[in-house]
Amino acid sequence: MVPELVGKLNSVLAALRAGPGETRARLAELRGILAAAQPNEASSAIRQFLRSKSDAPTGRGFKVGGNHFLEEAPTVRTFLLDYLGQIDPASAAEYSRLILSSMDSPDEWALALRNLARFDNSVAGRALLQEKTRELLGHEPWQQNPSAGFLEAFDTAVYVGGTNLLPPLTDLVRKQDNSALAHAAYLALDRLAINDTASVLAALEANPELMQGREQTRANYFARADIRDPAQRQVLESYLLDTRISPSELETFVSLFPNANYMVSQNLLTPTPTPDHASLVSRDAESLRLVKEWLNEPRFERLRLQLTKAQARLEQFVREAAK
Questions:
Q1: Residue 20 has pLDDT above 70, yes or no
Q2: Could you tell me the domains of the chain?
Q3: Does the global pTM surpass 0.90?
Q4: CA dihedral sign, ordered 308, 310, 316, 322
């Protein structure tokens, strides 16, 4: 049955190469062929096909759906890598190691990283995931004209978490001549700051060179601090009292704090959590209370102008919430 399946896959591939105008129908045919087979046979046929290196463009984009799998795939190989993750997670994770052994395609790496992350929770698998995510972020040929899959793969850094990948991400945020790259890195850093605020902000505060030239962006991240958490309050106070922080950065901070802007997106690995209304109201009220407290402390005297602006802004939020 497997040789027959591989033959059918090659037939669809030939049809796609010959008539790209019928892509949607051909991909539907391909999905139907695989769905009709036993999962183990479909998996074996897919892996045999992938090893042949045969491929064809589909004319579609790299579009992630709500279940972390693709709604659209740009090539037959990416379609099959994505499908393999759906029907045979263990084989998908194992095949990912082969994909990640050479830097042939950023879109294939994006799916290999996802499959490895989701389906291999071993210590070795986690170590490989972090290593290969760092390699992807630093691969200059893929940075120069980044594909959609390459940019989507930044979500792996969010999934890995922690602060080990801050240096390569902040390097990319500072690439202001490549807006797509800088924006993807900005979003990944922002979501890291949301997920592990105290650790990420502490690392940024201790290493100001990481955001050199993008200090206004750094203010966005520090405005994420939720002062109801003692660790976050501590790192925020250390940041605000740092005399190296410029007035313009402080102005950006007070115009956003507490930052409640959330980008909702479909990602390869991670969800995008957003706080509910009650949590936002509570956070605003506590932030206002703390700003008033700071205004009465001599150590914050240098920041009186900025804190007064923050107080007025937060008082408006609290009034509106009480209506």
A1: no
A2: 2-270 (1.25.10)
A3: yes
A4: negative
